Every structure is written in C-alpha cells, then in structure tokens.
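Proteins fold reproducibly. Look at a concrete instance:
___
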Amino acid sequence: MPRVDANRYSFRGKGLHLSVLLAVAVLLGGGTAAWHISEQSETFTYYVRNYDEVRDKTNGFSLEQVAHAEPVRIAFVGDLMLDRGIRQIAGRLGYEVFLAGIAEIAQEVDVVVGNLEGPITTHASKSIYTDSEDGQDHFTFTFAPEVATHLASAGVSVVSLANNHALDFGAEGLVQTRAHLRDAGIGFFGDPHEPAYHIHMVEREDMTVALVGYNQFGSPHETETREAIARARADSDWVIVMPHWGEEYTTEITDTQYRLARDFIEAGADVVMGAHPHVIQRSERYQDGVVYYSLGNAVFDQWFSADVSCGLAVLVTLDPKQGVVFEERFFWSTSRGVSVVAQCPEQV
C-alpha cells in the first residue's frame, strides 16, 4: 500500500486505523528540512519550507491572515462509476450502500472531491446486464439522473470530468451532466469542452483552493493543464491537480505519470491526486509538492481482485499556520459492492 516518501466525523474510538499522517508543516523560523518519525504512532512529519517561502508561494498571506485563517479540510477519492453492475444492484439495494464509505469520510471534512467516471444523463444504460464479451457497450457508461442527488447526499462536493468516460454520450451527455450536477449543488472541473470549467475554486473567507483537471486520454491535455495551473497559481492560495492517467490494473507508475507529476508541480501545483488505474499506486514528495499517483476505486463494479476492491481516500488539511497535512483512509468494497471504511484484507 502507498506510503509518502520523503462536509465532518472522527473515526477515532471506532476501531478504525489512521494509516499514515504526513504533515507538511511550516517552520516559522529557519528552513531546515528533516523527517520526524514518532515511535508511538504511524506519523511522520516533513518540514518543507520556512514561513517566508510559504507566504511567497501562497500569494502573500499576511501575518494577520495567518493568525485568523481557519484550515480547510478536503477529502480526495478515486473513481466513481455508478452504471453497469452498480446500477443493477442499486435497483434492489439503493445507491447508499455504495456511497456509505464516502458519506462516513465526509463527516470529517469540508469538501469531498472525486473522479466522476461517466456522464449523468437521461439516456438508457448500455452497460447494465453486460459482460466483457458484449464489446464496447460494456465500457460505455451513463449514470441515472438521481445519482447526482445521491452523491450530494453522501457529501460529494466537487467532481472531476477530466477522464476517458466523460464523453461516452457525446457533447449532449456532457451538457446534461453539468446540468444535473448544478441542480444537485455539486461543482465540477476538468471539463473536456469548456476551458471556463477547467478549474474549480473552493473559496473560504481567508483562503482559496484551486482544483485543476487533466486527462491523458483526451482534453484537458498537457498544455491546457499547465496553462490552467498557471492561472490558478495567480488566483489562489493552493493548487491541487487531479490527473486521469497511467495504465489500468497495475500498481507500477508509467514514465508519463512520473514526468507529468513533476511538470505539474514545477508549473505551480502543490498537490497531485491521480486516478484511472483502478488500483492504488505509490505516493511521493517532489520538491515542495506531494504526489499520489492513483487513489484506486471509490465506487466501481470491479471485485475480481483485492487490488481493485481497495480504494484510498486522502484527507488534506490546508492550514496557513501549520502547512499541509495528509491523512489516509482505506475503502474496502465487498463482493456485492458495499463500501466500508476499513483496512483492506492485505493490510490486516
């Protein structure tokens, strides 16, 4: 399982395990870099840069802002696919069973962000009741209109549309998706057709966080994403990129992922949170940024191995006073898709 190199609900007391806590903390004096590993908990802290460097990187937080700003907590989850087998089972059990893990995590945070692996439309499903022998229909997704409401009820606040399924029902399906998300109060970013929707701003009184999407298999492409990061860097305090990239079903990252992660951080991103491989991939620190190459599945009808049944949620706390803190939670999807927040079997 990954380890970092260099809207609300506490799980403590429930027997659930905080796997890793990475605190990318700010030294108010001095710039010494060092790891601190606690002997009594699975916690390690990295002091990245001194206050002046953070202030420069975050558009000049004033001392008064730092004194009064409240931290923002954002949870990132991986692929959300609610068609095919998920839609079939939801017809009997409802969508809540698939979103239970996300709803639990949402109790701890202000914002939940995930990758929406398909459009939300009124079109009939092509993939329901199919298998891999049925050809392209098995991989053509659309989610029922009520899915947007269920996502919002589970606490999902913002979704990325930067993926290889956003246009499964064409431009008209994308237009419907935007409308259904707006009606449910869910923001979106990484839109493959509208540059105005490449970025979503999470705004608080004292802080702005920019979310930027990238799709290796279409649009937004590399150049668009770098330009979006530059715009976001100028207009926000933190920039987080959610790329859709890599190879499916492998825990090994590709050369393209490795290169782009560095490109995005050098362009101004603070954090990179990847999706698409359907399995969890490693995470690492690069310069002043942190990269999670793949969060795996959050909701998906893939139960053929432990790797695809285990997903990662990363809770990111952005705090001008303390820096950035990363906490990991693991989703375990049972053989019938019920999602729980718990250690995956190979971790126990």
